[in-house]
Write a structure and sequence with these properties.
Elements: E1 8-12, H1 22-29, E2 34-40, H2 42-45, H3 52-70, E3 77-80, H4 83-94, E4 98-102, H5 107-117, E5 124-127, H6 149-158, H7 204-216, H8 222-225, H9 246-250, H10 256-269, H11 273-298, H12 320-328, H13 334-346, H14 351-364, H15 369-379, H16 385-396, H17 411-418, H18 423-428, H19 460-480
Parallel strand pairs: 1-2, 1-4, 2-3, 4-5
Helix pairs in contact: 6-11, 7-10, 10-11, 11-16, 13-14, 14-16, 15-16
The chain binds a DNA duplex through α14 and α19.
DNA sequence: TGAAATGTTGGGGCG
DNA sequence: ACGCCCCAACATTTC
């Protein structure tokens, strides 16, 4: 009788896929049966950053991964508890010889993983999988981290990029789990969340399909498309717009390497200057994602406050009622309200909409960007601590690459520019559906405005002056020091 | 990955 | 024909 080899554990975290998964593939290369594990950590479940929508999307991702694994005669082992304890017990239970996982760069995860690395008598193998270039790889000539996007991008582009990991997966690569006690995949309610809206498919196959179809067409019009306010990014027939791949990147259902190399192929096939520029613009977005992850690793204080401490003196307004009006999409500015309602109804917004509502909260209402950050983290299915924090600090003017404080979006002109016909507004604000195009951005100017829609909660030009003044005071104080 | 204020120019109406 | 004004269109500066 051949004694079966000791298994190895692959701990899935933010890498819910079988293809191009560096740690998983390394585990498979050992030729030991791989135990595919996912752990529900109570610390994450009860965090105020978690929201029902993203949790529901995660559950869909796990269900898809489980069914994918069943094709290989295995399944996803679900456990609940503190990862430190769950892993210890599982090692004892299965006599596993090693643990594999991919690095998660968020501050919470880094801290958690540090404790785990040294904890057991078996080796823990960690891989840089979630980014093309991990933190530390893109540094200035003085070996310092970049604090501005453009030079970071220029340096990033000069590096060689890792190839896609290809492996043909067989059933005998995985542990059958027959003799291991597993929890069933929980439902939302069991995890302490209330039911939520319908969400897109979270399977690896669908992510691949969406990537491929984006590369067929929309990527060549991305320069314009990325600014388009799209009500239904997933609709079959729609103008070229966002790639809508962020939720898949968020959970590693799609590999960034695969996305990058697909874009390179698209670049090679671009038929015009404009088309290749569009492809390049999309790759820039991948680089923004890498940039903000690097920033959070090198400057972990951003998670708790301003990237630039000189803005710590800003006297943000405390205005719970106004915050609530913003959250509920009742500001009286149609484009802002449409976006905020989209967020709470589908857990996603196009990038342009995120900038508009972020500018409105921080510059028009002059409410702390952390309130917006929290709200976004609660609702976004693609909510990622690094990217979300980076985006909010950018909008507020306190971050890296901060837009100068005087760049304040005008919610009306943004609306006219990026939703000229008011299609986006009308989709999300049914109460404005009968408003003529002429007034769709400014319904309060109608002879008789709709009764069920509020007037603007602030006068934009007054709000603009107020914010400029607040920043200016700070500059004066700074000069007096 | 702005917007508003201010400055400049040039055509047309008009006395 | 000329000077003057108005103002749209564009450019530059400022926050």
């Amino acid at each position: 009788m051949i004694s079966s080899p000791r298994p190895v554990i692959h701990w899935f975290r933010r890498d819910l896929r079988l293809s191009d998964n560096l740690a998983l593939h390394a585990a498979i290369y050992t030729d030991a049966p791989v135990i595919p594990l996912f752990i529900f950590d109570p610390a994450i479940l009860k965090s105020d950053r978690s929201g029902a929508a993203r949790m529901a999307f995660l559950l869909k991702g796990l269900a898809a991964l489980d069914s994918h694994l069943r094709h290989y005669g295995s399944r996803l082992l679900i456990r609940r508890g503190k990862p430190f304890d769950v892993l210890r017990e599982l090692i004892l239970e299965t006599d596993a010889s090693a643990i594999y996982f991919n690095r998660d760069y968020s501050p919470f995860a880094v801290k958690r993983d540090e404790a785990i690395i040294q904890a057991y008598s078996i080796p823990v193998h960690i891989y840089d999988d979630a980014l093309l270039l991990p933190p530390g790889k893109v540094m200035t000539a003085e070996d310092k981290p970049y604090t501005v996007y453009t030079p970071f991008k220029n340096n990033w582009r000069k590096h060689n990029k890792p190839e896609i990991s290809k492996i043909s997966i067989r059933s005998d690569h995985f542990h059958t789990l027959e003799d291991i006690a597993a929890h069933d995949l929980p439902i939302l309610g069991e995890l302490g969340f209330s039911d939520t809206f319908d969400l897109p498919d979270a399977s690896e196959n669908v992510a691949q399909h969406n990537l491929a179809s984006f590369m067929e067409r929309d990527i060549y019009a991305y320069s314009e498309g990325r600014n388009r306010l799209t009500a239904q990014p997933f609709a079959e027939k729609r103008p070229a717009g966002s790639s809508y791949l962020s939720p898949y990147f968020r959970f590693g259902i799609l590999s960034p390497r695969q996305a990058y190399w697909s874009a390179r192929d698209a670049f090679a096939q671009a038929g015009s200057e404009q088309a290749s520029e569009s492809v390049s613009t999309w790759v820039d977005e991948l680089i923004w994602r890498e940039f903000y992850m690097h920033i959070m690793v090198h400057f972990p204080h951003v998670d708790k406050g301003n990237f630039r401490p000189q803005y710590d003196g800003l006297q943000w307004r405390y205005a719970p009622d106004e915050l609530q009006a913003w959250q509920e999409g009742q500001t009286g500015y149609p484009v802002v309200d449409a976006a905020m309602r989209q967020l709470c109804q589908v857990g996603w917004m196009p990038n342009r909409a995120r900038m508009i509502v972020a500018s409105f909260l921080t510059k028009d209402l002059f409410i702390h960007w952390q309130e917006g950050e929290r709200h976004f983290m609660h609702w976004l299915i693609d909510g990622d601590p690094a990217a979300n924090n980076g985006g909010w600090q950018w909008a507020a003017g306190t971050g890296t690459d901060a837009q100068p404080y005087f760049r304040i979006f005008n919610p009306v002109s943004q609306s006219q520019k990026f939703d000229p016909q008011g299609d986006y507004i009308c989709y999300w604000l049914p109460e404005l559906r009968d408003v003529p195009v002429k007034f769709i951005h400014v319904p309060w100017q109608m002879p008789s405005p709709p009764k069920n829609y509020p007037p603007p909660m602030v006068d934009h030009s007054m709000a603009r002056e107020r914010t400029l003044a607040a920043f200016k005071v700070l500059k004066i104080e700074e000069n007096n020091l």
